[in-house]
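> example.struct
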């Protein structure tokens, strides 16, 4: 699955890494204008260990979206499987970052309703990322 630059608030396999590394020069769109797209909800800080250095635990929600109008049941299932594999790849790549200690409690599920009025299909992943600071 190929994600387009500028489709959503944060995007691609590097989007989660940018959250922890931060490239301040990257600008992204706040609306979904093309599919496939990805949307990374603002992360929620759950836990902090240490004062000057230690570890933080973030709850991350990442949503992948594809066009879904007039799809057969088989095509819809194929696209959902493809999005699930993409999400697994994204979180696997995240664990390779030296700042990330681990990714825990990964949950992937298809969404029952669309985010927009375009009728897209989507897979949502929720996980906890533990990072060094």
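> example.seq
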């Amino acid at each position: 699955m190929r994600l387009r630059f500028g489709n959503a608030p944060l995007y691609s396999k590097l989007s989660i890494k940018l959250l922890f590394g931060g490239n301040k020069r990257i600008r992204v769109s706040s609306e979904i204008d093309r599919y496939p797209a990805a949307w990374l909800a603002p992360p929620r800080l759950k836990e902090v260990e240490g004062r000057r250095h230690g570890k933080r635990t973030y709850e991350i929600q990442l949503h992948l979206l594809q066009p879904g109008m007039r799809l057969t049941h088989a095509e819809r299932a194929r696209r959902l499987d493809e999005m699930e594999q993409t999400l697994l790849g994204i979180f696997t790549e995240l664990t390779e970052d030296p700042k990330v200690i681990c990714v825990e409690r990964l949950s992937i599920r298809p969404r029952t309703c669309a985010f927009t009025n375009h009728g897209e299909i989507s897979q949502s992943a929720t996980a906890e990322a533990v990072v060094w600071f």
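> remarks
Confidence is low (pLDDT under 50) at residues 1-14, 17-28.
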